[in-house]
Amino acid sequence: MDRKVPSSTQNHPVGIILVNLGSPDAPTSVALKRYLKEFLWDPRLVDVFRPLWWLILNGIILNVRPRRSARAYAKVWTAEGSPLIVISRRQAAALEAELRLNSDEVLHVALGMRYGSPSIREALEELRQKGCSRLMLLPLYPQYSGATTASAFDAVTKALKAWGEVPKLVKVNDYHDNKNYINELAESVKEQWENGGEPDKLLMSFHGMPERYIEAGGDPYRDQCEKTAGLLASKLGLADGKWIITFQSRFGPQKWIKPYTDKTLKNLASSGIKNVDVICPGFSADCLETLEEIKIQNRNLFLEAGGERYRYIPALNDRPGFIRAIADVCIKRLQEAGWIKYH
Asked: Comparing C-alpha atoms, which of 227, 262, 241 is closest to residue 198?
């Protein structure tokens, strides 16, 4: 991918805060309780009446869910730690190197998780120590959602309240239809098919969301997921019957956007579809929801329902093509802000 070389328009370095959801510090009940308490208390994620939700969260959920979640995390934990944190650190380092390549601009990238460590507050402080008075926030969620992207914006705003001099700040809302991101998704699928052939059907599984969030607030998340899926299918040249979009990771009794990934896989297997591949285009890095829920749980569901071959196509992680794609997203946004120029 060819890019013009950016040069600085100001003297102070630019800091880029790379944000993802987060992870517990360890696959233990104690660590999960601490993590889930922060995660599930976010009103962007759960908008139930606060006093009632406090009773449910502290009286029921945090006494039951941590043990179950710890067992799930233990299945995917690595010697280096949480897969999401390990991969995100590699992404941050690779992005900084890519942005500095052939660039006159002084650019620093810091990693901050919305929940857990390293925190957004810690990432901001790291960039302040490096003299960054201009900051760009890049949530690694390709599709915008109030529950994820906007929550990251909230956390940055809250953390900056403690600063005496607030830096200039620009944000990237999404990159769901970015050409380079779509191309890299397609390349990852083609690599899978070159090694093992095409499946009967390609399942594109995105994280779910309660229906009422979209109905009440006009959240563009579902529309953007559908746009990403359609662009990927078009890039792969897939006929309508060869692919399907689904939604995973439901929580609680309320209705979530459909079709559901797990139920779809069961239905496909029982209807005679024996061979499926699953890709999760909404996840920039492999994590519990892809490695345990999709790669393990849903594989078992499909095979038990009569399926014969199930393959999970890994997230883009730190693939060079993906790093170049998000670097170009950064450069475009920084150029729009007037913080860099091309020569």
From this structure: 241
Which domains are seen in the chain, by residue range?
A: 6-175+319-342 (3.40.50.1400), 179-313 (3.40.50.1400)
- Half-sphere exposure (Cβ direction) of 312: Cα atoms closer than 13 Å: 22
Partner residues linked to 171 by β-bridges: 137
Torsion sign over Cα 75, 79, 81, 87: negative
Q: pTM of the full predicted structure?
A: 0.94
**DSSP symbol at 210:** B
- Length of the chain, in residues: 343
For 307-332, write each residue's pLDDT tens digit: 999 999 999 999 999 999 999 999 99
Q: Has residue 66 got a pLDDT over 70?
A: yes
Q: Which two tokens stand for residue 342?
A: 């091309």
Beta bridge partners of 340: 8
Tracing tokens 């993802």 back to the chain, one arrives at 20
Query: First-to-last CA distance in the chain?
Result: 17
